[in-house]
Design brief:
12% strand, eight-stranded mixed sheet, globular, single chain
């Protein structure tokens, strides 16, 4: 976070998938047990699984337990927000140090519904992992039992000839999106699920995301959207209990196969919602629509996404002046320097897949805003992306991105921007004739990376709206579509 290393985070997803392909094909593997845990490793492995189409089971390392500071459960996001609180003078450096030392108490993926845990929950929803994979804490004996169970399960899949694509079907991805919306997962799932689907030969676009979100209730408010953590979800019945709630309303397909050798419905027979405070009943959800919303408009004709479940009610509709920055570093400096005002709409551009390159997460500025108490008064819009630890009216994946000449490149300081999350709209309040004039005068900046992997990545990466996947090569060696 906060330096050039973040440019490599999303970009390494493709390297992970390619590396697995190389090793598996070179050594003639018959089947795969994939052991990921954090962020891009999970989707990178799933992309490889779909590409290779061998019998496959995913068993992750498991989530971390929450930390405790002065009797309150905390997670990694609280540390980032505490930095903003120190800069605002509402927290001492000694208090910040206490958060640093106690927020992450042991091994595992960070304890909220951030990207890693979101994607590990998606493996259960897809049916490519055994029940419990998404939520059993890393330090629990149940995690070891789960890993041991993967042994006989993968041998059974090999014997039956059941491969990854037999399980990760178009209907399975729709199930995953429904569970995504119910759990209130990271917006990064909207990058990763389409990328995995593409490897499986399944088309999964933002229209499908919007359609499923519109009919799927949000059942969970896990950190950063609420006070609960992954250990609480696990105690309440885990992902299987969430799926059972959805199944009771006919919102997922229970006839689909899974790596247990049984259907999703058969797996759910033992699922019980043990805590309706953590997993709201489908009859009394937090909201009737899903945790992620897709927004479109003249500022994002290709679409954009927001973690609706982590947006304060008063920010679901917002209008304010644009504060324009061409990098994450510039806006972080402005936030920490007290140069952002209540009501502003921050625009961070040239941080998309091509422009970044690598589509950095904007966690540092969003956490600083939250720490300064501005997450309920300031919106942030970017062609980059956000950490699952982000909360507030933070709209990412704006497409087309600025480096591709998208409308976000045409925003001027002080322009009015209107956000209407319930209506799914994102509007730059500027006359069309003025936008045409600005477009004619637009000159794309020089690429930020001129050599090495990032330069190759920038030259080949597609739109965030389709998962930021790399273009495929045709048989004649010419570049094909994404």
């Amino acid at each position: 976070m906060g330096h050039a290393g973040m440019k490599y985070s999303l970009a390494t997803r493709e390297i992970i998938a390619d590396s697995i392909e190389c090793m598996v094909m070179a050594h003639g593997f018959d089947a795969l047990v994939m052991v990921p845990n954090c962020d891009k490793i999970v989707p990178g492995m799933l992309m490889a699984a779909a590409r290779l189409d061998l019998p496959t089971i995913v068993v992750s390392g498991g989530p971390m337990l929450a930390g405790t500071v002065r009797g309150k459960k905390v997670s990694l996001s609280n540390v980032f927000e505490a930095v903003g609180s120190v800069s605002a003078g509402t927290m001492s450096e000694d208090e910040l140090l206490e958060y640093e030392e106690k927020a992450c108490p042991g091994c595992g993926s960070c304890s909220g519904m951030f990207t890693a845990n979101s994607m590990n929950c998606m493996t259960e929803a897809l049916g490519i992992a055994l029940p419990g994979n998404g939520s059993i804490p890393a330090v629990f004996a149940a995690r070891i039992r789960l890993a041991k169970s993967a042994g006989p399960a993968i041998m059974a899949l090999l014997k039956s000839g059941t491969t990854a694509r037999n399980i990760m079907t178009a209907k399975a991805f729709r199930n995953a999106l429904a569970v995504d919306m119910a759990l209130g997962c990271s917006t990064n799932t909207v990058l990763h699920l389409p990328a995995i689907a593409a490897e499986a030969g399944v088309s999964l676009g933002l229209d499908t995301v919007a359609e499923i979100s519109s009919r799927t209730p949000n059942l969970c408010k896990l950190s950063p959207a609420g006070p609960w953590h992954m250990e609480d979800l696990d105690a309440a019945g885990g992902v299987q209990a969430v799926m059972a709630e959805l199944a009771s309303a006919g919102l997922i397909d229970t006839s689909l196969p899974s790596v247990t050798g049984h259907t999703i419905g058969e797996n759910l027979k033992k699922a019980v919602n043990k805590d309706t405070a953590v997993i709201a009943p489908v009859t009394a959800p937090h909201s009737v629509t899903g945790g992620i919303a897709v927004l479109r408009g003249n500022l994002a004709p290709g679409g954009s996404v927001v973690k609706r479940s982590a947006v304060a009610p008063e920010m679901l509709q917002h209008s304010g002046p644009a504060r324009v920055f061409d990098s994450e570093e510039a806006v972080f400096e402005a936030v920490m320097g007290g140069k952002i005002n209540h009501g502003d709409v921050i625009v961070i551009r040239y941080e998309g897949p091509r422009g970044g390159p690598g589509m950095k997460e904007m966690l540092s500025p969003t956490a600083a805003l939250a720490g300064r108490g501005m997450d309920k008064t300031v919106a942030l819009i970017t062609d980059g992306r956000f950490s699952g630890a982000t909360r507030g009216a933070c709209i990412g994946h704006v497409s087309p991105e600025a480096a591709a000449g998208g409308p976000i490149a045409l925003v001027h300081e002080g322009d009015t921007i209107q956000i209407d999350i319930p209506a799914g709209s994102l509007t730059l309040v500027v006359a069309e004739t003025e936008l045409v004039s600005r477009k004619l005068g637009f000159v794309a900046p020089a690429p930020k990376a001129r050599s090495g992997y990032l330069a190759r990545y920038a030259a080949m990466v597609g739109s965030a709206a389709t998962g930021a996947v790399l273009v495929q090569w045709c048989e004649d060696g010419e570049g094909g579509g994404s």
